[in-house]
Amino acid sequence: MVATLALDLPDEAATLALGARVAAALEPGLVINLVGDLGAGKTTLARGLLRALGHAGKVKSPTYTLVELYSLSRLDLYHFDFYRFKDPREWEEAGFRDHFNERTVCLVEWPEKAQGLTPEPDVRVTLVPAGSGRHATVEGISDRGQRCIARLREAQH
After folding, report:
1. Around Cβ 102, how many Cβ atoms within 10 Å?
2. Are 70 and 55 within 8 A, CB to CB?
3. CA–CA separation, 64 vs 82, rounded Å?
4. Alpha helices in the chain (DSSP H)
5. Phi then psi for 105, rounded to 5 degrees?
6. How many other β-carbons are positioned within 10 Å of the β-carbon of residue 103?
7. In angstroms, rounded to a whole number, what is the distance separating the alpha carbons of residues 20 and 23?
8. pTM higher than 0.85, yes or no?
9. Do 26 and 105 form a contact (C-beta atoms < 8 A)?
10. What is the pLDDT of residues 109-128, one digit of tens each?
11. Helix, strand and coil percent figures for the chain, each rounded to 5
12. Coil, strand or helix: which one is 47?
């Protein structure tokens, strides 16, 4: 069973706020796939999440580097962007598999470009433009992901 939360995000501030809510619901070991077309708000959501975890520096999509590490007070977070990922050998050579473990949180943009290489996500956030904002669907796929959705729901009330 997949736990789902659907939200309308009228503007960038609402997308940043959703990122902050997700940050509060994190636990080590989570894999979160961020799904959506170019400009859908994936990196904005990641920025809101990282700011809420205490990262004060710049947050950019790691389109060219493929991954950025953020060592935060309570966890290490890897932000992947596979938009330009082309060669599966790069996955092995870079040691990306090692980043997905019980001590880290991995945010993955463009997961479909590395399909079959990344682990199944615990949480999938799909962002779709809607008017001047966007619509978000947050799905808890695994048991760990469903706990994350439950914490998100508790934070709503």
Report:
1. 8
2. yes
3. 9
4. 12-24, 42-52, 88-94, 143-156
5. -115, 135
6. 9
7. 5
8. yes
9. yes
10. 999 988 888 999 999 999 99
11. 35, 30, 40
12. helix
Structure token digits, residue 127: 């962002």
Sign of the C-alpha dihedral computed for residues 134, 10, 109 and 99 taken in this order: negative
- pLDDT less than 70: residues of the chain: 61-66, 72-73, 157
Cβ burial, residue 6 (10 Å; 0-12/13-18/19+):
exposed
| Sign of the torsion angle spanned by Cα atoms 95, 97, 102, 106 | positive
- Are the C-beta atoms of residues 3 and 150 closer than 8 Å to each other? yes
Is residue 17 classed exposed, middle or buried when 0-12, 13-18 and 19+ CB atoms within 10 A define those classes?
Answer: middle
Distance CA 94, CA 80 (A): 12
User: What amino acid occupies position 126?
Assistant: T
